[in-house]
Amino acid sequence: MVAILLGSCSQNFLNTQPLGEVSSSIVWSDGSLAQAFVTDIYNGLGNGGFDEQMLASLTDEALFTHPGRGINTVTEGTLNPSNLGWTNNTYEWGNMYKKIRAANLALENLKIATFDDQDLNDRLRGEAYFLRGYFYQQLLRYYGGIPIIDSSYGLNQDYSKARNTYEECVDFIVKDCDSAASLLHGKQIDKGRASEVAALALKSRVLLYAASDLHDIPTAKAKSSVIGGFANPELLGYLSGDRKARWEKARDAAKAVLDMPGYGYKLDLTAPVSAEQGQNNYISIAMGGGSKASEADPSAASELIFARYFTANKDEGGEYVGRNNGPNGYHNWAGNEPIGELVDDYEMADGTKFDWNNPLEKAAPYKNRDPRFYASILYDGAPWKPRDKISGDVDPANQIQTGQYEQGGKMIAGLDTRQSAIENWNGSWSGYYMRKFIDPDPNLVDNTTRQFVPWPFFRYTEAVFNYVECCLELGQEDEAKLWLNRIRFRAGMPAITLSGQDLMEAYRSERRIEMAYEEQRYHDARRWMIAPTTLGRTVAIIVINGKLKAGATAPVPYHHDETLYNYTYTPEPDNTVENRKWEDKMYFLPISRDEVNKNDKLIQNPGYND
Amino acid sequence: MTRGYLFKILVVMKICLVLVMMTFLQLTASPSFSQKRFTFQLNGVKLEKLFSILEKKSDYTFMYNYAYVKGHSRIQVDATNATITDILNKALPAGMYYKLLPDNLIVIVPKGTVVQDVRVQGTISDSKGNPLTGVTVQVKGGSVGTVSDVKGHYEMEVAAPATLVFSYIGYDDQEVSVTDQRTLNVTMKLSAKGLNEVVVVGYGTQKKVTVTGSVATVQGSELQKSPTVNLSNSLVGRLPGVTAIQSTGEPGYDASTIRIRGTNTLGNSSALVVIDGVPDLGGGLERLNPADIESMSVLKDASAAIYGARAANGVILITTKRGKAGKPELTYSFNQGWSRPTRVPKMANAAEYAMMNNELTMYSGVPVDQWSAAWQSLSQKGIYTLGDGTQVKAPYQPDDIQKYKDGSDPWGHPNTDWFKTTFKQWSPQVRHTLQVSGGSDNVTYLASLGYENQDAYYKHSATGYKQYDMRLNLDARINKYIKTSFGLTARQEFRHFPTQSAGDIFRMIIRGKPTDPEVWPNGLPGPDIENGQNPIVITTNQTGYDNDKRNYFQTNGKVEIDVPGVEGLKLTGTASLDKEIQRVKNWQTPWYLYFWDHTSYEPDGTTPLLTKSMRSTFTDPRLNESDDNFLNILLSGFVNYDHAFQGGHSLSVMAAVTKEKDNEDNFNAYRRYYISPLLDQLNFGGDAEKNNGGSAYERARLSYFGRVDYNYKQKYLLEFLWRYDGSYMFPEAHRFGFFPGILAGWNISEEKFWKDHVKVFNYLKLRGSYGQMGNDQVYFNGALQEYQYLSTYGFGSYIINDQVAPSLYETRLPNPNFTWEVANNFDVGLDGQLLNGKIDFELDYFYNKRTNILIQKAGSTPASAGITLPPVNLGRVDNKGYEFKVGYNGNIGDFTYSVSVNGGYAKNKVVYFDEAPGAPAWQRATGHSFGTNGNNWLVYEYDGVFKDEADIKANTVDYSALVGDLRPGDMKFKDVNADGRIDADDQVRLDKNRDPTFTGGFNLNMQYKNFDCSVLFQGATGGLLYINIDNEAGDIGNFLQYDYDHQWTVEDPSSVYPRIANRGDTYYTQGAAGNNTYWLRSSDYLRLKNLEIGYTLPVSLGHKADINSFRIYVSGLNLATWDKMKIWDPESTSSDGHYYPQGKIINVGASIKF
Questions:
Q1: Which residues of A touch B508 (CB under 8 A)?
Q2: What H or E segment, with its residue span, contains residue A109?
Q3: Is residue B947 classed as helix, strand or coil in its secondary structure?
Q4: What is the DSSP string of A151-192?
Q5: Rounded to whole angstroms, how far apart are CA atoms A512 and A526?
Q6: Is A390's CB within 8 Å of B611's CB?
């Protein structure tokens, strides 16, 4: 018996196999498996910008409603190497490097892969180059120069590595973009994958940033003593050199994107469309072809150069934008609420600036604004989706209620306030809610239903803006205005006719409004070095009171009615949630204390070592 | 000493030979005395003293009946050059006679006794008929004797009449007089001292007295006293060195985490459970019916080495009951219990909660210098006008607070105690067991059936646990040489839950605002707290169900063959099959709640108008179903050879091989868009978004092991055990590990010098062990890390072309060179009894050094490397501690009692852990202990509270890395590195973690006539628990009553308690510095763990009904607790209370035996 057992106990008995995994060696001999490996690198993109906490809330676009997420650590300037505050996975150091390694592995293995489809091999390498470049770009724009690791480490190597200079990083990413673009040229690209134009768009962004004030050290030093006092400014930008050449390079890169056929949405207009059309155009672009709402034109998907898509068959965080940001009176969570500073920056429909000191505008601040305002912001009285009937038919008018309204002799709080009977702790502080990326399809109940709006990493309009900015920096104002006004016409806004510094300001404002909530503002305000006067501002909220007109009877249930109520609008600074301030150290994120402790070659960013 | 003894054995052998010759050859020659002469004097000595002097001075050996000789008066001897006959003639009293036998043997007998030489033989067995090996047989008064062999047989020549003394450690001495019998079979009776107790050890049994390892045992009958439905909850306090922490009481998941001698490794610290010889049996020990358990042994030291591969954290051996030959015996027992939480957190009431929210509104909206004025205005008028003219309104107005206080408006201003409203008073649980056992000489059986049903605390609870189990143990002797045994267990475990997890439910109960109704005054369910969550509904089946059925079918068979012709050689083969099928069905249906807008009324104008609304976060029913199939096959073969040599040497040798394979596969399927909540079958779901999946694994182990046991007369004990283990976990070249153990024991009390001098100790044993064991449970990041030597890619997905596209990612950078984690365990122990067993004790000291622990080098590898790190054999942990158990048995008339105290202390220390090279010394995990929740606490050190603005002004420490501006009520921290700034460098590694270092128990058993009572107190010390619910307290949810009572306020500024926070919006409640010592609480406790009082009906009553015995009893679990934590149960491991609390159980039961 024992002998039988012994006899059957060959050592092969212990050679079990992992049944849920595939041997790496066979992956590179099979085209579909190799493709699956490259596909996974895209997961480094996370939910795009559609996480519960959005980058907009670190800027003068929005305020994050709920405390305890580490966001105020950043906006109040408390952040430091040992208290990083909120850091999203889409740019977090470790997560980026994990995916960079995956891209390196793909590039190394594809070089020696044995499957015999060169076309596929080229495309996959192109995608890997793009992704590596993209992740390095993420690190570069948040942290400054980072260690460039261009091959995969083995076991027991020396993993410590110094940061490369800013210039080296730019060159490296540009080279990856060029490799990607040439490998992807002429390839059939599935929706969701990187294409040649995505590589060109990435290159355009990186070169635009490289030409900007923050990364021109002589300029940056002059504007910031913190940068001025930093011993290793080469990690943050160009120490010297021809700025004009950098702007030209950036302009040409942007132009290369503009020249790609088949992208962009309604950018051939020569006059403004109607306000309604402008609003719908803007909604259509934000929906990126992912909405069934009647006002959303699916063909606006042509704006998207590179995006993160979502689908019903996989439940992912990016599908809850409506629940995360919608009004509490709809049983949503308010999340990234727009603040007064953003709302105020929407021009009047005639192209003039909105002004609280204008009594007419102050009395009716939500009238006659840029059509994009109505497509981006939910404000008091704004018509919105059918409100749920959970607590009864409390709002048959389906309007946003962020004010206090007189009823029965006292002031009653609106359904979407922090004094609401419905989930008041989720109410907006600012009196506004985000609308831009929420699918307006009335059949989607945001609290219970997911949406499938793609996140735009690169859209055609960004490249247009990049081109406009370079043209302005290079003094080519007519070319700049031509493109700038195309964007405005699409939105139903009149042409800009300014020049000089005013034109530059108008451009910056236009970029802010058009690209709101798209993870641009945080970077733009920093690279333009206007952060102290923008990102550092105290949050502005709106206080709205609706007093009944003499002799008027309050409607029950309440609805917005200017024939019955006199509404007053009072903007107020508010430090309740965040006591925002700007410190120049915030131009770059701190590198985590743990990482510095593990890699002693790392130099910390300026302002974090005192 | 030994030489003398051996010499005497030789003498006896010679005598035997001579006697045999005499018998056969009818020799009548009379032996003659030697003519040796003696000179000595003795004054007033006993006769036996004379004999012993003569023995020493000559070659003579005296044989006599001690009782006969003892009674005679003392004598005088005055010998001068006298022969032995001269001396004896003079000295022996009248009537006493001596006779010389060959080989200088002198027999002392009463005159007239016919002395004859008798050859006696027989078998020595215990009361159960099992042969006893190694029993010493001696003629009383003489020193000659023999020892029984493996079959309990002995044989010797005796000069009759004589008395034979049979002695065996752990048994009472037996005296049998020999006159002319030729066959003398002897049954030894167990001594009351319990030393004979059979202890189950690895792959065998030993008597307690010969056990050399550190083994804690408990009988099944003890475990039966605990009225818990989960066996793991019955262990604590009963086994020194075994810690069992029950962190939740949720039916189905209420198991204790068991640790033997604490945490020994950075990886997996779970003990190996072996049930009837099968390691790691599906379902473990938790769901065994305690009535089926014969005994439980815990191998704490190198005695576990024979289990090699998975034994590093100790081994728990469970032996189930088997039948005994005799009339069939039927036992039925019934238990009805009622449980309720030991403790639920006290939450703030409505008025308190309202005031706290008013405070929060002020803290966030009013500058510090106006707090005082603002607070007065807010609490009196409900509104405050700031200096700049803006108004701050209290969310709760003074008249609201009044209504919360006086309860005058139950609809609009309730005062809800969410725990009270959600729970019922007592939750029933029931257990029935029917057991029959019996058999003939050749076949014995035991069969049992069990049923249990456990309800949860909630009203109309969807949660519960139900179990059906059955066991059949069969033993059959086929012939003289072959014996077989079979065991079969079948069990269904049915865990049923609502669709919301207990974590979510308790999160809501704690969060529930006391100012909101959970249930309307008319009995209808109130609104949700958020996302449809209202505990009164989500604890029921109104949301669907989550059913988890696990079916176990486990068999094992054994054939033992005594090899004919080779005495003591035995071959054994065993096979066991462990089959588990798990089916989980999660059916979610939308649910409805009742809402009131606080303005609408029924037509009567006074009754609030409630709206019934669907309030789940989904609207279509959906079903998730999964099926999991597991099979383990274990085959083993053993060769045993036992031999007792002449002279008391016994040797037992075992060698074995075992191989084991696990196979598991599962699948799951999901559908939604069911057209009706009434159809809960997979078939009826919609087509869109349906999903399915599946996976599988295989695991294998191959082991060779053995043991050599040697003892000399049970006085000197030596054991060597080894295991050569191969596991699929390791790369081929490093797959096998050799794990030896050596154990030795010395029964000091068996030594003559001890017996003569230290009579108070009737038993004392010193033992020691050293062994190595392996651990193949490569475990980090909360998961078993398999195939870490292979370069493989795992499957993920990403959205391409609006489809879920499969993707592949590198699972790890493989390490081709890693191998076993090694436990080096050293133990020394002392066991003893005093006053003839009245007092007994066991003491142990251990020192475990765990090396080669498989860890990731995550501490020193920069994130920029981008690597998913493989395991490397780098970690080292030392663990030291002690255990004790002291008992006393006594009686006062009919009242008998026993008390015992036990305890175990274990404290480990991380010797090597991969840490960031730049981390400050006071933060390093190395040098500190390590627990179930990882490294010791790394925290800021709380240093009081800024009482007022003056206090802040006087502060010189920079808090800017934590907060912009300090405000009164903010917390102070110690500036550990004294750099004038509080930052991450000021965190310190504490010397404690969550686990207790000491666990102990106090047992009291009493019996008076037909009454019996047992009491178990149990306690633990040395752990710390982090308790902070601030993340969801404030405008979002309720506070602890403790927080209301202990807070900085404007009216009562504290320098001890901090200001309350809204959802943790202060630096000291959340984020980096939220980890501070203020929130750490001692989890030390003492509790009345178990109490049982029973009454057995008098036998006379029973006989009339043919009842053998009938006992009724009441018992209880966790009846009283003394602790410092005071928030929730001190055994809890939860920091936020989002868990189902431990239970207090009251139980009544009856057991009847026919």
A1: none
A2: helix A93-111
A3: coil
A4: S---TT-----PPPPHHHHHHHHHHHHHHHHHHHTT----TT
A5: 13
A6: yes
SS (H, E, C) A184-198: HCCCCCCCCCCCHHH
CB contacts < 8 A, A to B, total 286
**CB atoms closer than 10 angstroms to residue A92:** 19
**What pLDDT digit, counting tens, does each position of A495-519 carry?**
999 999 999 999 999 999 999 999 9
Residue A501 C-alpha from the chain's centroid: 27
Which stretch of A116-120, A464-468, B613-617 has the lowest confidence by average pLDDT? B613-617
Bridge pairing between strands A410-413 and A540-548: unpaired
Contacts for A501 with CB less than 8 Å, ≥ 6 apart: none
Residue of A nearest to B655 (CA): A2
Which class for B644: exposed (0-12), middle (13-18), buried (19 or more C-beta within 10 A)? buried
Euclidean distance between CA atoms B102 and B104, whole angstroms: 6
Secondary structure element (H or E) that encloses residue B13, with its range: helix B2-25
Average pLDDT score over residue span A4-28: 78
Query: What does the block give as tokens for B225?
Result: 């006293």
Q: Which residue in chain A has the smallest CA separation from B981? A: A610
**Probe site for chain A from B595, B596, B653, B799 (most A CB atoms < 10 A):** B799
The answer to whether the CB atoms of B597 and A424 lie below 8 A apart is no
Residues of chain A with C-beta less than 8 angstroms from the C-beta of B484:
none
Domains belonging to chain A, first-starting first, are: 30-42+82-153+160-261+591-598 (1.25.40.390), 263-309+454-529 (no CATH), 317-448+540-573 (no CATH)
In this predicted structure, what is the pLDDT of residue B4? 46
Is-contact B1084 B1124, C-beta < 8 A? yes
Q: How far apart are CA B761 and CA B978, in angstroms?
A: 59
Residues on chain A touching B386 (C-beta within 8 angstroms)? none
Number of helical (H) and strand (E) elements in chain B, helices listed first: 15, 59
Nearest CB among A67, A556, A581 relative to B1065 is that of A67
Q: Do B659 and A391 touch (CB under 8 A)?
A: no
Residue B14 clears pLDDT 60, i.e. is over it: no
DSSP B599-667: S-B-TTSSSB--EEEE-SS-SS-EEEEEEEEEEEEEEEEEEEEEEEETTTEEEEEEEEEEEEEEEEEEE
Backbone angles phi, psi at B179, to 5 degrees: -115, -70
Chain B residue with the nearest C-alpha to that of A388: B613
Residues A426-430 have a mean pLDDT of 95
* Cα separation, A431 vs A572, whole angstroms: 11
Report the gap between the CA of A78 and the closest CA in chain B (Å): 5
Q: Do A9 and B807 touch (CB under 8 A)?
A: no
CA distances from A246 to A465, A473, B413 (A): 16, 10, 67
Are A23 and B962 an interchain contact pair (Cβ–Cβ within 8 Å)? no
| List of chain A residues whose C-beta atoms are within 8 Å of the C-beta of residue B611 | 389-392
Secondary structure (3-state) at B1108: coil
Cβ <8 Å between B964 and A78: yes
User: Does the pTM of the predicted model rise above 0.80?
Assistant: yes
pLDDT one-digit tens code per residue, A130-175: 999 999 999 999 999 999 999 999 999 999 999 999 999 999 999 9
Rounded to 5 degrees, φ, ψ at A59 are -125, -175
Sequence-distant (≥ 6) Cβ neighbours of residue A18 within 8 angstroms: B697, B786, B787, B790, B792
Closest residue by Cα to residue B764 from B743, B748, B752, B753: B748
Which residues on chain B are in Cβ contact (under 8 Å) with A159?
Answer: 861-862, 864-865, 867
DSSP codes, A416-483: TSTT-SS-GGGS-SSS-EE-TTS---TT--TTT----PPEEEEEHHHHHHHHHHHHHHTT-HHHHHHH
Nearest CA in chain A to B867: A98
